[in-house]
């Protein structure tokens, strides 16, 4: 969600280790306050608080502390009650992919939008969309870790694309085809064993059907 | 499996159903946490109002508030 509120990919990655990422000072001190207030709220030091004051007014500090407090509330509630990650309804995602197919003339752009829709909506750790060019399958778009190879030879099966995340608890590869043949493949991976249900299979197959006309055309 | 059941749109009162609809329109789903809190409609209504006030435009930039939320959730090992 954070991305759509103007947080860059770099900053999101930097949040894993804020001490090393060059956040501006006013953001850096707010993040250190978040760490301290989450780890040991009674132990927030006077030094840290004085620094927070140098950058933020009292109403702003109240707002920052409310954000940190609210998410500690949500996280504890969700962790203790074993809350499952919310997945977006396949119908909603299919509607988005159809819209993208109508709006985007270029194959690359359509594949990129589709990879984003699937990765965001279903929390797949990896999405790769390949287009067939002769005897090769060529990577058109992906989300997740960068694949080591941008193409693989037809007939090598999906062994060439599988296992890119290292340990791959589960993978689903669906051909993109129409009556004239196979035009590509959509490969998705989950970070948990048996991570795909019937709903996911049906979703990725339906997405493949939507992409078929575009991938059957010339590689753009 | 979540430890507490989640209420579907046909299991909730009309005013909660309207909240569900708003989420569906905004983001394509109704977060499982909110469908769980829906067991206590008054808590869901006030929780959402507070959530929107805290995370929406205020005196601190919204992107920073999103980053704080992500950082706290990572510290708490909550990938929800």
What attributes characterize this protein structure?
heterodimer; A: 220 residues; alpha+beta; Beta-Lactamase; 2 domains; 5-stranded antiparallel sheet; 7 helices; B: 80 residues; mainly alpha; 4 helices; globular
Textual characterization of the structure:
Chain A is α+β, with helices and mostly antiparallel strands and 220 residues long. In chain A, 47% of the residues lie in helices and 17% in strands. The mean pLDDT of chain A is 88. In chain A, helix 2 (25-39) packs antiparallel against helix 3. Chain A is elongated, with a radius of gyration of 22 Å. Chain A has two domains: 2-80, no CATH class; 90-216, GAF domain (Beta-Lactamase, 2-Layer Sandwich). In chain A, a hairpin with a 7-residue loop joins strand 2 (136-143) and strand 3 (151-153). Chain A has helices at residues 9-14, 25-39, 46-55, 58-80, 90-103, 107-122, 198-216; strands at residues 126-133, 136-143, 151-153, 170-178, 181-190. Chain A has seven helices and five strands; from the N terminus they run ααααααβββββα. Chain B has one domain. The model of chain B has no long low-confidence stretch (mean pLDDT 93). Chain B is globular, with a radius of gyration of 14 Å. Chain B has four helices and no strands. Helix content of chain B is 61%, strand content 0%. Chain B has helices at residues 14-27, 32-37, 41-55, 62-75. Chain B is mainly α. The interface between A and B is large, with 48 and 39 residues.
Question: Would you summarize the structure shown here?
Answer:
Chain A is of the alpha+beta class and 220 residues long. Chain A has helices at residues 9-14, 25-39, 46-55, 58-80, 90-103, 107-122, 198-216; strands at residues 126-133, 136-143, 151-153, 170-178, 181-190.
């Amino acid at each position: 969600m954070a991305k759509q509120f103007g947080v860059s990919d770099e900053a999101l990655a930097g949040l894993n280790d804020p001490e090393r990422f060059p956040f501006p000072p006013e953001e850096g001190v707010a993040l250190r306050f978040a760490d301290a207030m989450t780890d040991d709220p009674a132990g927030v030091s006077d030094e840290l608080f004085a620094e927070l004051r140098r950058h933020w007014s009292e109403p702003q500090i109240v707002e920052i502390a409310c954000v940190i407090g609210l998410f500690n509330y949500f996280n504890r509630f969700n962790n203790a009650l074993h809350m499952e990650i919310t997945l977006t309804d396949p119908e909603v995602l299919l509607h988005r992919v159809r819209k993208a197919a109508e709006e985007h003339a270029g194959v690359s752009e359509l594949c990129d939008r589709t990879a984003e829709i699937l990765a965001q909506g279903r929390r797949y750790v990896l999405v790769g969309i390949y287009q067939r060019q002769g005897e090769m399958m060529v990577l058109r778009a992906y989300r997740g870790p960068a694949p080591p190879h941008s193409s693989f030879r037809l007939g090598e099966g999906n062994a060439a694309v599988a296992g890119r995340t290292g340990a791959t608890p589960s993978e689903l590869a669906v051909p993109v085809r129409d009556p004239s043949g196979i035009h590509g493949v959509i490969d998705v991976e989950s970070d948990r064993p048996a991570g795909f249900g019937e709903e996911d299979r049906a979703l990725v197959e339906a997405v493949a059907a939507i992409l078929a006309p575009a991938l059957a055309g010339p590689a753009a | 499996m979540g430890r507490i059941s989640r209420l579907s749109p046909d299991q909730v009162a009309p005013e909660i159903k309207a909240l569900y609809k708003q989420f569906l329109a905004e983001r394509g789903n109704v977060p499982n946490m909110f469908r769980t809190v829906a067991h206590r409609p008054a808590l869901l209504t006030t929780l959402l109002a507070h959530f929107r006030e805290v995370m929406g435009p205020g005196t601190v930039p919204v992107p920073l508030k999103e980053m704080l939320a992500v950082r706290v959730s990572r510290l708490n090992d909550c990938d929800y």
